[in-house]
């Protein structure tokens, strides 16, 4: 069990929390990064430091806070989201999105002036903003994903363009309209939430760059890969995925699938080459574009999912076996399940190529809250607190420990899973009763430890530690405390825990030289000796752990070497295959070249028997065209050129006669002569155009085989 620290228990006394009362429900009005907490209320955002408050509690400094000066926020804030770097703060409501650049320098006055940008103002007027999320693999930490209710996912690079998105994903516009296998009427579909799969290790596959979007009908849409143009994907993941694609490509016999593997292989190869140069960039494909309009549609295997009402949120966790999906619904239900197939990229797809969708098998359904009205349930997850997800409803916060993820990472335990296995443990953390829970953020920094903070609509803030619950019973609803964490405990007494076993001896008469001083000196020496022995044992344990780590590292190196050898063999075989294909193509082109050379050599000799009837006809047409050009077009063209030179000379040398000398008849004669000459030039120009068209027609009849 954890215990509440005094500085956490007195956080409500912080001056930044005074006057933050708000009587409306909001999605999330609190964010934390590296100890700095951002809290919003209506149109105002305040910033204070938890580490500073921790020092304040023990009397080192005075607590203070700052107010962000933001001239772009003229709306009531519904959601805050800080990026991984802690420099960009996204501020959103249903139809507005603003990004503030948090300055590094902090002035002494209370106001903190930021640079603010309105994002995509023309894209959110007709559809509501459903959810925003910073892309985890942005090289500049500046790519913001925005999902609107109409099923369009925008990716903005706020460091380059704040008006137009870098990429756009149509999630529900181009689904096949045949049949009812996808649940409700597709025309009534509406997106309600989205997420990006979790990245845990290089072997997690495409899940970590796959977007999963939840529809109101209960269906799930996934599209992959969703990567910024300026990305920073882990090199280990690129190498592992590259090798896996090569292996699958070698075992594939379907031509259409081979095309998919080719473009996937090419895309990964470009990323690997860019990563070796230290500047990973996604090169846009010119020949085939990513199929934005053809994502996977994942169908739940149970029709009762749609009876839960609208979906509130979705979270996808990566495991060694398959993606683990966590869903929450407005009816208060939480569902965990697994997807039958791993996500994969689709580079180009037609409607008749769509196959049956992968299935979402529901493993466990938990009723967290019961209410007659829809309850928004927002999911939160922090890699620093593994195997746990946190659910924030409009008035409560719960911690859900999902042991299913632990089972899916172990092949032996995965075989033991059945439909009756209850692998979720629930701990209800906070109940605000009549107030709204308007914010939840998870803290995973080393200085503060794994903890959470919850903000109520009246400005009350709770900070408490979190821990795993594998061996803990469920906490019933009657144990909840208003605006107080239910896992508070007193600090354990460390003095009661024995460091080592103390030796005892039987009583015996002491010799005369044993005095009180010698006994005291002996006791002190024995205590120091015991402490030194304890240190030696600790050092011995560290050495054993170090030796074990070296042994494991050596095994890993052997595995890597063996894998590299196998990969080199596959690459060598592929290179040999490519060389064979290249040789065959070269021989084919050599034959064609020899054929064309023969035709050129005997172009004007019709007695050669090697020519086909089509080739003889083409040569006759070419000879006739050449005679026409030499005897008709060329002389007229020379006359036209000579006459043009004469006219230019006359225009440059001769002065025009005075208007009064020429009579009307003379003027008419000059105009008539010029008109005739112009008509001849026009006819000659038409003949030249006809000659060009005849040449093109003959060229199209050249036999290449």
From TrEMBL:
Coiled coil: none
Subcellular location: Nucleus, Nuclear pore complex
GO MF, one example: structural constituent of nuclear pore
Pfam families per the UniProt record, alphabetical: Nup88 (PF10168)
Protein's organism: Boothiomyces macroporosus
Cellular compartments per GO CC: nuclear pore
Keywords assigned: mRNA transport, Nuclear pore complex, Nucleus, Protein transport, Translocation, Transport
GO biological process: mRNA export from nucleus; protein import into nucleus; ribosomal large subunit export from nucleus; ribosomal small subunit export from nucleus
Keyword Translocase: no
Keyword Protein transport in annotation: yes
Protein name per UniProt: Nuclear pore complex protein Nup88
């Amino acid at each position: 069990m954890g215990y509440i620290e005094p500085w956490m228990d007195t956080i409500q006394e912080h001056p930044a929390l005074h006057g933050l009362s708000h009587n409306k429900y909001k999605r999330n009005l609190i964010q934390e990064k590296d100890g700095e907490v951002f809290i919003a209320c209506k149109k105002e955002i305040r910033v204070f430091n938890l580490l500073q408050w921790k020092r304040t509690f023990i009397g080192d400094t005075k607590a203070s806070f700052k107010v962000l000066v933001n001239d772009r926020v003229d709306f009531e804030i519904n959601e805050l989201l800080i990026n991984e770097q802690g420099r960009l703060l996204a501020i959103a409501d249903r139809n507005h999105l603003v990004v503030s650049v948090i300055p590094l320098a902090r002035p002494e006055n209370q106001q903190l002036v930021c640079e603010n940008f309105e994002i995509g103002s023309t894209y959110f007027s007709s559809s509501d903003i459903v959810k925003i999320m910073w892309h985890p693999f942005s090289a500049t930490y500046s790519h913001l994903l925005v999902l609107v209710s109409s099923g369009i996912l925008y990716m903005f690079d706020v460091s380059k363009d704040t008006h137009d998105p870098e990429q756009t994903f149509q999630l529900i516009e181009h689904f096949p309209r045949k049949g009812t296998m996808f649940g409700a009427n597709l025309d009534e579909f509406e997106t309600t939430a989205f997420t990006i799969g979790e990245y845990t290790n290089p072997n997690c596959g495409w899940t970590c760059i796959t977007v999963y979007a939840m529809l109101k009908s209960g269906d799930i849409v996934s599209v992959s890969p969703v990567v910024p143009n300026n990305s920073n994907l882990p090199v280990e993941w690129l190498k592992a995925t590259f090798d896996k694609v090569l292996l699958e490509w070698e075992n594939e016999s379907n031509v259409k699938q081979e095309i998919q593997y080719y473009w996937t292989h090419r895309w990964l190869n470009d990323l690997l080459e860019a990563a070796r140069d230290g500047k990973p960039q996604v090169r846009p494909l010119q020949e085939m574009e990513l199929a934005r309009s053809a994502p996977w549609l994942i169908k739940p295997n149970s029709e009762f999912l749609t009876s839960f009402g609208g979906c509130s949120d979705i979270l996808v966790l990566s495991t060694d076996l398959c993606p683990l999906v966590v869903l929450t619904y407005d009816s208060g239900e939480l569902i965990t399940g697994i997807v039958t197939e791993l996500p994969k990229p689709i580079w180009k797809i037609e409607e008749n190529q769509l196959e049956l969708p992968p299935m979402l098998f529901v493993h466990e359904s938990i009723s967290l809250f019961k209410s007659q009205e829809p309850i928004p349930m927002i999911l939160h997850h922090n890699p620093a607190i593994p195997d746990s997800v946190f659910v924030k409803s409009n008035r409560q916060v719960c911690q859900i420990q999902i042991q299913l993820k632990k089972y899916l990472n172990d092949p032996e335990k995965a075989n033991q899973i059945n439909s009756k296995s209850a692998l979720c443990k629930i701990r209800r953390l906070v109940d605000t009763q009549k107030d709204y829970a308007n914010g939840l953020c998870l803290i995973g920094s080393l200085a503060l430890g794994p903890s959470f903070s919850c903000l109520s609509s009246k400005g009350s803030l709770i900070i408490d530690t979190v821990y795993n619950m594998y061996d803990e019973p469920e906490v019933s609803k009657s144990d909840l405390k208003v605006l107080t964490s239910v896992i508070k405990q007193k600090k354990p007494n460390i003095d009661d825990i024995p460091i080592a076993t103390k030796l005892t001896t039987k009583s015996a008469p002491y010799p005369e030289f044993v005095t009180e001083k010698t006994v005291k000196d002996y006791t002190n020496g024995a205590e120091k000796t015991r402490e030194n022995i304890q240190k030696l044992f600790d050092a011995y344990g560290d050495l054993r752990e170090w030796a074990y780590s070296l042994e494991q590292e050596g095994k890993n190196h052997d595995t890597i070497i063996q894998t590299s050898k196998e990969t080199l063999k596959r690459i060598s075989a592929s290179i040999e295959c490519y060389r064979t294909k290249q040789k065959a193509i070269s021989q084919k082109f050599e034959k064609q070249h020899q054929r064309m050379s023969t035709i050129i050599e005997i172009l004007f000799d019709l007695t050669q028997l090697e020519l086909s009837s089509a080739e003889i006809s083409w040569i006759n047409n070419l000879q006739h065209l050449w005679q026409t050009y030499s005897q008709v077009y060329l002389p007229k063209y020379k006359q036209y050129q000579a006459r043009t030179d004469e006219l230019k000379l006359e225009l440059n040398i001769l002065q025009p006669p005075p208007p009064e000398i020429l009579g009307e008849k003379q003027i008419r004669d000059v105009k008539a002569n010029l008109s005739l000459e112009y008509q001849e030039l026009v006819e000659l120009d038409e003949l030249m155009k006809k000659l060009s068209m005849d040449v093109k027609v003959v060229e199209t009849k050249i036999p290449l085989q």
